[in-house]
Write a structure and sequence with these properties.
- It contains 26 helices and 16 strands.
- The strands form four sheets. A seven-stranded mixed beta sheet has the order 9-8-7-10-11-12-15, with helices on both faces.
- It is globular, with a radius of gyration of 25 Å.
- Residues 99-280 form the Malic enzyme N-terminal domain.
- It catalyses: oxaloacetate + H(+) = pyruvate + CO2; (S)-malate + NAD(+) = pyruvate + CO2 + NADH.
- One of its GO terms (molecular function) is metal ion binding.
- Residues 290-551 form the Malic enzyme NAD-binding domain.
Length: 620
């Protein structure tokens, strides 16, 4: 693994080889605001950590207690306050409030307690926060667009900056949130949470991101009958009007923020893949539920294959649960087999069997377009049982993936059938939350006498058993297939090289970069994937491989990208935002940039749209 980089050393340097870059994080930060405006700007506010010089220079005397504290002291106090909250939802609310006050302190606290706080700032606690969005609401965060005002979409998006201000946009329509279903306008919080992870895990600049919700109504009767619900109080809109709404959003983003990367998140099953396939050939976009899940799962599989000394090109795989996640995993495996073996995607798909509610998907089964490439010849299965157990017995797969949300589906009989023909079966029960897992690691390892290579969709404790060479007790650590070890690095790489598209080859490169950092490559009792506490250097490696693939394919548009891996890593690190207090440099408002004037998200929208229209008229 790449060594972790020392952020404090980075910011002590007076110069950097890449300090001239627009996203460089070395040196001081320009600030043109003073007094209470500065203290009310989370990007500039340091609270009690403002130095005496800053207090004098920025007219903060009298607005702060006299003692000057360090970021570390502030983080210790914030952790005490966090720890005093009675439950995880209250802790989540505390963190959201801190984020609105001081961005650096917020991310410093998360970084210092990553393992403890990850489940509070993201799943499962973020799911509870989203369910209670209208009841916990204090102040808006993000951009709220609604389907009854389609023509206002460009106007409303324009309030968030100029073309150079936004790098990363996360958008959700709130229909399928974190396993809790339709949450309507509360989906804004999943966009916010995903952007927190891009900054925490990969250093995407937090003041250059935009969370968006597309409010199309909701079919959640509980929300519709709640007098406090803040979204459109109507059933979800489908069809032509929905497509026009999404298209207006995408086109407005491309016009207003032409270099921004668009991340689709938690769209409903009828729309997620369709929208991705519609826009992926045209713009730099990504769907974490489909592509992120596919990438992280494939990385775990590739690490497991290294341990079991097998080649991906020869693998037979059964996926139990053929929804968005299951088909996304199948697609990523298929595309990588196709790339590695130099064969067509249809031929690569022959190595993958999908099982859904009707059983094994065959040509005699009604299915979606996305599933059809994996359908097996119905005549070959005529009269045969198509259950999971019978498919495992017939196919003798090397890998079994669970995305079904059917608890206990990987029974002892199924797992033993997997282990009967494969020395080191790869078994990944990925359904979330824990109560929906197809099997727990302890059972899988017990039923395979410690031979199975296991990763899960939720964190599990290590498993001990008598699986050493001489029957001695061995402890096996179980990897969590957490998308956060890959999607932030993919986004960072795409942003830094200003990719025109996110190609299959870029995703395959990201998977190989992550798989190459597997702890199991050095010790087969170690987890198949790095943990989130190691994610910053992991994101550097993933971003590096994404950038190199983008350059090779001719879709990178940024100039002067370094060639060598070490120099490229330095180039990436220099542009990753870190939670440290960089010195504030006083600049006059006249001629200062909008970030320095704390105006990144308060630009006059009418003026902004007029600027856009003028540019379009000048275009050839």
């Amino acid at each position: 693994m790449s060594p972790p980089f020392n952020t404090e050393d980075k910011h002590k340097r007076s110069t950097s080889k890449f300090s001239h870059l627009p996203l460089s994080t070395s040196g001081p930060v320009d600030c043109a605001v003073t007094g209470t405006v500065l203290l009310n700007t989370p990007y500039f506010n340091r609270g009690s950590a403002h130095t005496l010089e800053e207090r004098d220079q920025f007219n903060l005397t009298g607005l702060l207690p006299q003692s000057v504290q360090t970021l570390e002291q502030q983080a210790a106090r914030a952790y005490q306050q966090y720890s005093s909250r009675p439950d995880n939802l209250a802790k989540n609310t505390f963190l959201a409030s801190l984020k609105e006050q001081n961005l650096v302190l917020y991310f410093k606290l998360l970084q210092d307690h990553m393992k403890e706080m990850f489940s509070v700032v993201y799943t499962p606690t973020e799911g509870a926060a989203i369910e209670n969005f209208s009841r916990l609401f204090r102040r808006p965060e993000g951009c709220f667009l609604n389907i009854n005002d389609i023509d206002r979409v460009p106007h409303d998006l324009a309030q968030w900056g100029r073309p150079e201000d936004i790098d990363y946009i996360v958008v959700s329509d709130g229909e399928e949130i974190l396993g809790i279903g339709d949450q309507g306008t509360g989906g804004i919080l999943i966009s916010v949470a995903k952007l927190v992870l891009t900054t925490l895990c990969a250093g995407v600049h937090p003041n250059r991101t935009l969370p968006v919700v597309l409010d199309c109504g909701t079919n959640n009767e509980k929300l519709l009958s709640d007098e406090l619900y803040l979204g459109l109080r109507q059933k979800r809109v489908r069809g032509e009007k929905y497509d026009k709404f999404v298209n207006n959003f995408v086109q407005a983003c491309r016009s207003l923020f032409p270099r921004a990367y668009i991340h689709f998140e938690d769209f409903g099953l009828p729309n997620a893949r369709r929208i991705l396939e519609m826009y992926r050939p045209k713009i730099p976009c990504f769907n974490d539920d489909i592509q992120g899940t596919g990438c992280v799962t494939l990385a775990a599989i590739m690490a497991a294959l290294h341990v079991s000394k097998q080649e991906l090109g020869n693998v037979r795989m059964v996926i139990f649960g053929a929804g968005t996640a299951g088909v996304g995993i199948a697609d990523q495996v298929r595309d990588t087999i196709s790339d590695e073996k130099g064969i067509g995607k249809e031929d690569a798909a022959k190595q993958i069997w999908l099982i859904d509610k009707p059983g094994l998907l065959t040509t005699n089964t009604e299915m979606s377009n996305a599933q059809k490439i994996y359908a097996k010849d119905g005549s070959e299965w005529e009269g045969k049982e198509r259950s999971l157990l019978e498919v495992v017995k017939a196919v003798k797969p090397h890998a079994l993936i669970g995305t079904s949300t059917v608890p206990g589906a990987f029974t002892e009989e199924v797992v033993k059938a997997m282990a009967e023909h494969v020395e080191r079966p790869i078994i990944l029960p990925l359904s979330n939350p824990t109560r929906l897992h197809e099997a727990v690691p302890a059972d899988i390892l017990k039923w395979t006498e410690g031979r199975a290579l296991v990763a899960t969709g939720s964190p599990f404790d290590p498993v001990k058993g008598p699986w050493g060479p001489d029957g001695s007790e061995v402890e096996i650590e179980v990897a969590e297939c957490n998308n956060s070890v890959i999607f932030p690095g993919i986004g960072l790489g795409a942003v830094l090289c200003r990719a025109k598209l996110v190609t299959d080859r870029m995703l395959v490169a990201a998977v190989r970069g992550l798989a190459g950092l597997s702890p199991a490559l050095r010790d087969d009792t170690a987890p198949l994937l790095p943990g989130v506490e190691e994610v910053r250097p992991v994101s550097v490696r993933v971003a590096r491989e994404v950038v190199r693939a983008a350059v090779d394919e001719g879709v990178a548009t940024e100039a002067d990208i370094p060639n060598g891996p070490d120099e490229l890593d330095e180039w990436i690190r220099e542009q990753m935002w870190d939670p440290v207090y960089r010195p504030l440099r006083r600049v006059e408002p006249q001629g200062a940039g909008r970030q320095a004037k704390a105006e990144l998200k308060v630009v006059g929208s009418l003026e902004r749209v007029e600027d856009r229209d003028a540019r379009q008229k000048k275009a050839p």
